[in-house]
Amino acid sequence: MIVPRKALQQNTVASHYDDLDQFYRDIWGEHVHHGLWLTGRENPQQAVEQLVVHVAQRAAVAQGDRVCDVGCGYGGTSRILAHEYGAEVTALTISPAQHKYASEKEPDQSNPVYLLRDWCENQLPPASFDVVISIESSEHMPDKAAFFAEVSRVLRPGGRFVVCAWLARSGARAWEIDHLLEPICREGRLPGMGTAEEYHQFARDAGLNPTGFDDLSRQVKRTWPLCAWRMIKGLIREPAYRRFLFVEKSPDRIFALTVFRIWMAYRTGSMQYGILTALKPAEIEAGCSPVAYNALRGS
Ligand SMILES: C[S@@+](CC[C@H](N)C(=O)[O-])C[C@H]1O[C@@H](n2cnc3c(N)ncnc32)[C@H](O)[C@@H]1O
After folding, report:
1. Is residue 190 within 6 Å of ligand 1 at its C-beta?
2. Which among 80, 130, 216, 257 is least surrounded, fewest beta carbons within 10 Å?
3. For the segment 11-69, what is each residue's pLDDT rounded down to a tens digit?
C-alpha cells in the first residue's frame, strides 16, 4: 500500500472536492472518472459513458435492482443506472458541493437518492442491496478493510460488487514511489493506494469472492493528456483559473501538477487502472427488512 508521507487530515477529501468543484465540473463534467476507449474512436463523452456501461455490465445491473453507488461524485453514473437501466439507486458522497449539485439534478429526489455521508459510517441497513459499485472512490478511504467490510455488510447474499480503482504496480521501485506514487497520493488526497493483490485480499477478508479482474490501464490512460489539455486551455482563456492557481492560496491547486504526474505514472506502468468484480456468497442467510430499506430511501 502506498501512503502519503504525512497522514491526511480529516475532511481533506471532502474539502478537495469542494475547493475544486468548479474545475472538476469544467474539466471532467458530470463524470469524475476515467474514460474507457475500446475502439480508440470514441469521443471523450462516449468514453466516460462507456466506462459506466462496462461497470453496469460487469455488475449485471437489471431493472429493479437496488444499487448502491459508493462515492457518486456529481451523480453521473447513478443517473444512468437509474434512468437507463431501471435500477433503484442510492448514492453517497462526502462532498457537500457534489451532493448539492446531484440533488438539484433530481427534482423529485426519489431515484437516485443522494446521501451526504461517509461510506465507512454509512448506517445503511445490512443486506439491503443487490449491487454495490465504486468508481474511483475506494482510493480515498483511509481504511480499505472497512471499505470492503461495509460493501459486504450492505450486500444481500448473492449480491454483486464492482470496484474501479487506481492501483499501484506491485513491487514499485523506489524512484516510482518517491516521484510518482507517493506524491500522487499526497496531492490527490488518497490516504492509500493499494495493489491489485491487496484489493483481492481485502475482498476475501471481507467475505467476498473475487470473480474477475482486469487491468484497463491501456484503455483509460488517454484521460490524462485530455485533462491536461483542457486545463491548459482553461488557463489561457479563464482569468478564474489563473486566479485560483497563482493568486489564491488553496492547498488543492497542487492538483494541476498531479494531473501530469498521473499521466507519467501510466506511461511508466507505475500506476494501473483495475476493475475487480466480487460476489457475496449466496449461502449466507441474512435479509434486510423492507421497513429499514424503505426508511433509508424516505418512502
Ligand atoms: C474520483 S471521484 C469519483 C466520483 C464518481 N464515482 C464518478 O465516477 O463520477 C471520488 C468520489 O468519492 C467520494 N468519496 C471519497 N471518500 C468518500 C467516503 N469516505 N465516503 C463517501 N464518498 C467518498 C468523493 O466525494 C467523490 O465523489
Report:
1. no
2. 257
3. 889 988 998 888 888 888 899 999 999 999 999 999 999 999 999 999 999 999 999 99
C-alpha span between 143 and 120 (Å, rounded): 8
Residues in a beta bridge with 215: 274
User: What pTM was computed for the model?
Assistant: 0.89
CATH architecture of 12-296: 3-Layer(aba) Sandwich (3.40)
Q: What is the DSSP secondary-structure string of 39-84?
A: SS---HHHHHHHHHHHHHHHTT--TT-EEEEES-TTSHHHHHHHHT
Say if ligand 1 is within 6 A of residue 141 CB: yes
Q: Which residue has the cell 459499485?
A: 133
Q: What is the DSSP letter of 192?
A: -
Q: Is the CB of 136 under 6 A from ligand 1?
A: yes
Q: Which grid coordinates are listed for 128?
A: 439491503
Which residue has a Cα nearest atom 4 of ligand 1?
73
Apex 30 CA angle, 269 and 76, nearest 5: 95
Cβ-in-10-Å burial (0-12, 13-18, 19+) of 22 comes to middle
